[in-house]
Amino acid sequence: MTTQTVLRSPWAGHADAAELERWTAVAETVAAELARDAVDRDRAGAAPVAELELLRSSGLVNLLIPRSAGGEGGHWETAFAAVRAVARADASIGQILGYHFLNSACITFYGAQADQEAWYRASAASRWVWADAFNPVDPDLQLVADGEGYRLSGTKHFATGAAAADRLISAAVATGGEHDGELVVFALDARGAGVEHLDNWDHLGQRASASGAVRFTEVAVAAADIIGVDTGEPFSSVVTPGVQLLFGNIYLAIAEGALARARGLTLARKNSWFLSGVETYAQDPVVHRLYGGLVAKTQAVRALADQLNRRYDDVAGLGAAVTAADRAGLEVAVAGLKVVSTEVGLEVASRVFEATGASSTANAVGLDVYWRNIRTHSLHDPVDYKKIEVGANFLNGTVQPVSLYT
User: Fold this and answer.
1) Of 142, 217, 321, 378, which has the highest C-beta tally within 10 A?
2) How are beta strands 167-175 and 142-146 bridged, if at all?
3) Residue (of 261, 253, 274) closest to 352 by Cα position
4) Which residues contact 332 (CB under 8 A, 6 or more apart)?
5) How do beta strands 167-175 and 130-133 pair?
6) Which PANTHER family match (predicted)?
7) Which residues contact 395 (CB under 8 A, 6 or more apart)?
8) For 3, which DSSP code?
9) Do residues 309 and 11 make contact, with C-beta atoms less than 8 angstroms apart?
């Protein structure tokens, strides 16, 4: 059996004000460009080729890569802030960016120390966008020894961004060869021989996320494609609370985006309800009350998300020193964010229509995109199980088994 130890983390400390300001501004510039045709692209549902090129050219894809490997040396707090800025304008592209950060970070979470810089250098130099085919509820892939390497076959039914990405990360238990019986994590050319993108994502929301299936047919997996082996160390499993934290930030961003769009629509309304006694809807105390509740709840979610984004740097920076208790504390806290961000995001994205009126339901307005996106993505894993996770921990100190959902 192969053993490996991650000795250190490339992330240390926290982002300073200059880093946060710089990259938030970059992300907001990207978001402004995406916002110009976000509704049209949502309707089309085409692979986001130009949008991912925008992420590359902005430098965002290299944000978390260490400076020693040609990257920007940024922090997770900054990365999540960038995702939120992008997702306010386009939740599909925000999801792809967040997945890119977490998938490329698997170089550290699963990779042998000696190999990490080479992977990061290659990614930084080519400005790779990383997607994944990790969906754990699909049947397992087959990774079978073939000479000095392996052959990969099987299908993963959800592979967000893969059709337009550069590298596709996945994992499978090896049969035979050097890694027999081990869970091998590897990265492939997303458009390599035997990799087929089925372009079958036809869902209510996240339409521009290219989240369709990917089929592997006798794909060659060489030793150079293998990032590492999942040995079950607590540090490696920190990636999963990171995914759930990403979701919380995306749902928050959707709420923020919906509020901003609805505010503009409300201010543009030229009349008022005949019983209100005021001239415009923007002066109506009933409308004020509606927005007041939604804004206050969103502010509360933002405060929790900001706190946890910073905390993620603390845990990720520990490297091999991460304990099961460190990981569990982060997991439960993030589960709490998942609960409130889901519920507040759904409420905001639905109730803003009460302030904007029937005219805002026109397809050309596109206000429905926010609700469709969060309604679709929030079903990724049942939020009721997050409530159980938080409640059981509160009462009994119970921690859920480590998985790709907890």
Assistant:
1) 378
2) parallel
3) 261
4) 389, 390, 393, 399
5) parallel
6) ACYL-COA DEHYDROGENASE, ISOVALERYL-COA DEHYDROGENASE, MITOCHONDRIAL-RELATED
7) none
8) -
9) no
Query: How remote is the C-alpha of 242 from its chain's centroid?
Result: 8
Q: Is there a contact between 95 and 250 (Cβ–Cβ < 8 Å)?
A: yes
Q: 3-class secondary structure for 370-384?
A: HHHHHHHHCCCCCHH
Q: CA-to-CA distance for 29 and 21, rounded, in angstroms?
A: 12
CA distance linking residue 101 with residue 161, whole number of Å: 12
Q: Cite the DSSP H helix spans in 113-177.
A: 113-126
Q: What is the spatial distance between Cα 33 and Cα 51, in angstroms, rounded to a whole number?
A: 9
Q: How far apart, in Å, are the Cα atoms of 361 and each of 41, 371, 377, 404?
A: 18, 12, 21, 37
Output phi, psi for 180, to 5 deg: -50, 125
**DSSP designation for 385:** H
Residue 305 token pair: 């998300």
The span from the CA of 24 to the CA of 140, in Å, is 38
Mean pLDDT for the stretch of residues 234-260:
97
Is pLDDT above 70 for 166? yes
Q: How far apart are CA 130 and CA 64, in angstroms?
A: 13
Is 264 buried (19+), middle (13-18) or exposed (0-12) by CB count in 10 A? exposed
Task: Please write the tens of the pLDDT for every residue from 86-104.
Answer: 999 999 999 999 999 999 9
> What are the tens digits of pLDDT across the range 37-86?
999 999 998 889 999 999 999 999 999 999 999 999 999 999 999 999 99
Q: In what helix (H) or strand (E) does residue 153 lie, and over which residues does it extend?
A: strand 149-156
Find how far residue 245's CA is from the centre of its chain. 8
DSSP class of residue 402 equals P
- Rounded Cα–Cα distance for residues 10 and 108 (Å): 8
Rounded to 5°, angle at Cα 79 from 15 and 303: 75
> Considering only CA atoms, which of 86, 111, 112 is closest in space to residue 100?
86
How remote is the C-alpha of 251 from its chain's centroid? 10
Q: Angle 74-405-381 (CA atoms, 0-180°, nearest 5)?
A: 110
pLDDT tens column, 110-157:
998 788 999 999 999 999 999 999 877 767 799 999 999 999 999 999
Strands 214-221 and 195-197: antiparallel
How far apart are the C-alpha atoms of 378 and 244, rounded to whole Å? 11
